[in-house]
Design a protein that fits this description.
single chain; Rossmann fold; 6-stranded mixed β-sheet; 3 helices; 9 strands; 21% helix; globular; binds inosinic acid; binds magnesium ion
Length: 182
């Protein structure tokens, strides 16, 4: 089986959208500071590019939570593999996610973080697959709504590969061509 990646969102389309999101977030948080929580590993590239376009003070935090194994189905169970190291009490918190699929991960994470009494808690995702939603979760900023396809690149992986692509693509699998009979 050969894997093939077709471009879904080019780097320039992503950059344009990130500029727009950065403007909107900067306006919405005027005179405030933002505690950004980057959800590892998939959101690293998005967080890094987006935060450069935000003009209010930004603080970086990282969490690693998952409900995914190496396959393409969510188990719906939140596993906190890496937690915050600082308190978010009374702070304006913005979760930065790569993609919302079933919504299970974020709805569980949101409940966990709300218990820590932030002044506000919003969610920003690069990609959303609305057709796959199982758990209802309020999303404040969305880069792109995409069809129900498994995507890679710009931080997103398939079995830990393809994260470094500067675009988002759809993976598909092709049968290897058979050697012609001699
Ligand atoms: P959810 O809990 O089903 O919303 O899963 C969200 C997480 O699943 C994301 O943060 C990704 O890590 C992963 N995920 C969901 N869809 C894709 C995809 O198309 N490509 C790569 N990872 C995905
Ligand atoms: Mg993720």
């Amino acid at each position: 089986m050969k894997e093939k990646v077709d471009v879904l969102l080019s780097n320039s389309a992503i950059s344009t959208r990130i500029n727009e999101l950065g403007d909107k977030i900067s306006k919405d948080y005027k005179n405030k500071e933002i505690q950004i929580i980057c959800i590892l590993k998939g959101s690293v590239m998005f967080m890094s590019d987006l935060s450069k376009k935000i003009t209010v003070p930004v603080y970086y935090h990282f969490m690693k939570v998952s409900s995914y194994g190496s396959g393409t189905d969510s188990s719906g169970v939140l596993k906190v593999e890496l937690d915050l190291t600082e308190s978010i009490e009374g702070k304006h918190v913005l979760i930065i996610e790569d993609i919302i699929d079933s919504g299970n991960t974020l709805s569980l994470l949101r409940k966990l973080l709300l218990k820590r009494n932030p002044a506000s808690l919003k969610i920003c995702t690069l990609l959303d697959k609305p057709d796959r939603r199982v758990s209802n979760v309020p999303v404040d900023y969305t880069g792109f709504s995409i069809p129900d396809k498994f995507v890679v690149g710009y931080g997103l992986d398939f079995d830990q590969r393809y994260r470094n692509l500067d675009y988002v693509g759809v993976v598909s699998f092709e049968e290897d061509e058979e050697e012609p009979f001699q």
